[in-house]
């Protein structure tokens, strides 16, 4: 059997990577702790190798790729309508939020803009995805710290939001409801009133969670002053979303970027916190759930009438060009850089996901902390493995 | 259990053992991707509540579990870990493959890094289809598995013969 030079090089590179990790695992100074790839605190399949001196972390390395599914290569062989189905599954907690930037980028290339009613509905679904995501976070954060009860409350109330998504699109959390140029269907009768009622329920859930979780003394001790990220470090590492706002940087793409979505018609606050610790990150996300409820209620109340689909050809061919569109997703900035050469599918798509950049700060922030704090910090940074590895 | 090892087991005893086994499944959840959220909804969600079927989620270790639920995309990098975990479980053990990705690759059927079905590395008892399956579908899968356990001849299983399900 003949081995080509490139095969040989790939083999050597793989061996070298393995050897490096193994050597670091076997060195004498300190103890090496392997967390993952299957551990509840890693939200899936993140593996973390930490070198400890007693209870203190000396050095830590996240090992990723256990959930790499090859999105960027797969979308090159799919057509544009097929891609929305696929990218739904990148950040699996946040429903339609993954579709939105891709659809907007494609529409920008085609020179189409969705009708106003479709923009409103898209924003409503986007924010409902945010609520579903953040309720899960609040429940999950409790589990990380050792409180199981918030999880049951979160799961109970999350179902209401999923039910609303299901009643309009048929899918519990991969709705695949956006189309290029608008939406698949209009909403069913009575949906708006029901949504407003559920948003009131979710606000009550936020109040409950604030007392149950954030007011808890043990929770405060586990999170206050732990894993502090200063604003300049956060910006250097490219943190986005709630993690950046928890460090005191007032930055939100919903407000700062003028995209064809309905955020500009809603009145909401961008919440920031100055502490930058685990407590601040949890608190920010709780407040964001409230703000999202406010946005959905407002948009449902003044939803304009009209068509939900712009005029687009039946077979979608996107003219040659490049576009980058990013939106504020629950985890942070998510953007798609779409390069089209005038075919049925894109030539190349670069997916900028928030978690990948959020996780890059892990070696910095975990240096010198104690072992139990690893879990608090990872839990509060909040990443989704599909979002990291793609 | 000398009777079982010699390959003979009285029928009432088999019935008794199987009934007690099927209502005390300890499920080790290998939550990988989207399906893990639906599995969590089935386990922790008050609406679905898998515990009423006698399934106890969250054992401390695979060595305490009877049932492995692989939910989500299994990638080639993950496969050795899945196999190793399955090998750590004590016999008799069962596997539920939840979701299209674990069944056959699902939407990543042409991906270079995804294993096209977890049954390539471990034997699967029940496949739950869907992308992701609803929590009710997982409950249905558990019920089907319990039916299967009820009809099992334990002596056959422990001798290693192919299992015949009536």
| CATH architecture label name of chain A | Orthogonal Bundle
Radius of gyration of chain A: 22 Å
Largest sheet composition of chain B: 5 strands, parallel
Proportion of beta-strand residues of chain A: 5-15%
Structure explained in plain terms:
- The complex is a heterodimer of chains A (390) and B (166).
- Chain A has 390 residues and is of the alpha+beta class.
- Chain A has a single domain (71-389), classed as Cytochrome-c3 Hydrogenase, chain B (Orthogonal Bundle).
- Helix content of chain A is 49%, strand content 12%.
- Chain A contains 16 helices and eight strands.
- The radius of gyration of chain A is 22 Å and the shape is globular.
- The model of chain A has no long low-confidence stretch (mean pLDDT 84).
- The longest helix of chain B is centred in the last third of the chain and has 16 residues, at 135-150.
- Chain B has a five-stranded parallel sheet with strand order 2-1-3-4-5.
- In chain B, helix 2 (11-22) packs antiparallel against helix 6 (135-150).
- With 166 residues, chain B is of the alpha/beta class.
- In chain B, strand 1 (25-31), helix 3 and strand 2 form a beta-alpha-beta unit.
- The chains are: A alpha+beta (390), B alpha/beta (166).
- The A-B interface holds A 37-38, 44-45, 65-70, 73-74, 77, 85-86, 89, 92-93, 136, 139, 151-152, 155-156, 158-159, 172-174, 385-386 and B 30-34, 36-38, 40-41, 44-47, 72-73, 75, 77-78, 81, 85, 107-108, 110-114, 131-132, 134.
Question: Helices, strands, pairings?
Answer:
The complex is a heterodimer of chains A (390) and B (166).
Chain A: H1 5-26, E1 31-35, E2 47-53, E3 56-63, H2 71-74, H3 80-87, H4 99-110, H5 116-145, H6 149-169, E4 178-179, E5 182-183, H7 191-214, H8 217-223, H9 231-236, H10 242-245, H11 253-256, H12 278-301, E6 321-329, E7 332-340, E8 348-352, H13 354-359, H14 362-365, H15 371-381, H16 385-389
Helix pairs in contact in A: 3-4, 5-6, 5-12, 5-15, 6-7, 7-12, 12-15
Chain B: H1 2-5, H2 11-22, E1 25-31, H3 34-44, E2 55-57, E3 67-71, H4 79-88, E4 94-98, H5 100-104, E5 126-128, H6 135-150, H7 154-159
Parallel strand pairs in B: 1-2, 1-3, 3-4, 4-5
């Amino acid at each position: 059997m003949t081995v080509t030079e490139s095969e040989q090089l790939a083999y050597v590179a793989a061996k070298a990577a393995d050897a490096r990790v193994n050597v670091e695992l076997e060195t004498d100074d300190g103890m090496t702790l392997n967390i993952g790839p299957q551990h509840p605190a890693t939200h899936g399949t993140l593996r973390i190798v930490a070198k400890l001196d007693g209870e203190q972390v000396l050095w830590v390395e996240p090992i990723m790729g256990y959930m790499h599914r090859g999105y960027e290569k797969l979308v090159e062989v799919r057509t544009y309508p097929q891609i929305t189905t696929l990218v739904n599954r990148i950040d699996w907690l946040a429903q339609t939020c993954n579709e939105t930037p891709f659809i907007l980028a494609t529409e920008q290339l085609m020179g189409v803009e969705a009708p106003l009613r479709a923009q409103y509905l898209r924003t409503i679904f986007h924010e409902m995805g945010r609520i579903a995501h953040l309720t899960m976070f609040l429940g999950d954060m409790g589990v990380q710290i050792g409180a199981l009860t918030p999880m049951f409350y979160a799961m109970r109330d999350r179902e209401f939001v999923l039910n609303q998504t299901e009643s309009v699109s048929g899918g519990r959390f991969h709705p695949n409801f956006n189309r290029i140029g608008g939406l698949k269907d209009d909403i069913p009768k009575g949906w708006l009133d029901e949504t407003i009622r559920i948003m009131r329920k979710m606000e009550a859930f936020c109040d409950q969670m604030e007392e149950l979780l954030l007011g808890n003394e043990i929770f405060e001790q586990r999170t206050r002053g732990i894993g502090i990220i200063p604003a300049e470090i956060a910006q250097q590492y490219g943190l986005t979303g709630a993690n950046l706002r928890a460090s005191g940087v007032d930055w939100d793409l919903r407000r700062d970027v003028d995209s064809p979505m309905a955020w500009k018609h809603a009145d909401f606050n961008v919440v920031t916190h100055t502490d930058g610790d685990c407590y601040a990150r949890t608190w920010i996300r709780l407040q964001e759930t409230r703000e999202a409820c406010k946005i959905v209620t407002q948009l449902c109340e003044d939803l304009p009438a009209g068509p939900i689909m712009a005029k687009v050809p039946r077979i979608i061919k996107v003219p040659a060009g490049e576009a980058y569109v990013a939106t504020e997703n629950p985890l942070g900035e998510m953007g798609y850089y779409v390069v089209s050469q005038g075919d049925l599918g894109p030539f190349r798509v670069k997916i900028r996901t928030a978690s990948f950049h959020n996780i890059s700060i892990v070696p910095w922030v975990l240096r010198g902390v104690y072992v139990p704090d690893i879990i608090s910090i990872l839990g509060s940074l909040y990443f989704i493995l599909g979002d990291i590895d793609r | 259990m000398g009777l079982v090892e010699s390959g003979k087991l009285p029928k009432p005893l088999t019935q008794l053992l199987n009934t007690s086994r099927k209502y005390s499944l300890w499920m080790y959840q290998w939550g990988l991707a989207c399906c893990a959220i639906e599995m969590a909804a089935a386990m922790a969600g008050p609406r679905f509540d898998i515990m009423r079927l006698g399934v106890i989620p969250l054992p401390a270790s695979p060595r305490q579990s009877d049932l492995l639920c692989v939910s989500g995309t299994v990638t080639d990098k993950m496969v050795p870990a899945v196999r190793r975990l399955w090998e750590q479980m004590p016999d008799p053990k069962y596997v539920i493959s939840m979701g299209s990705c674990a069944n056959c690759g699902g939407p990543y059927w042409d991906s270079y890094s995804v294993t096209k079905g977890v049954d390539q590395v471990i034997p699967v008892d029940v496949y739950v289809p869907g992308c992701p399956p609803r929590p009710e579908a997982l409950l249905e899968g558990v019920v089907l598995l319990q039916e299967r356990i009820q009809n099992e001849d334990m002596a056959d299983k422990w001798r290693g013969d192919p299992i015949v399900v009536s």
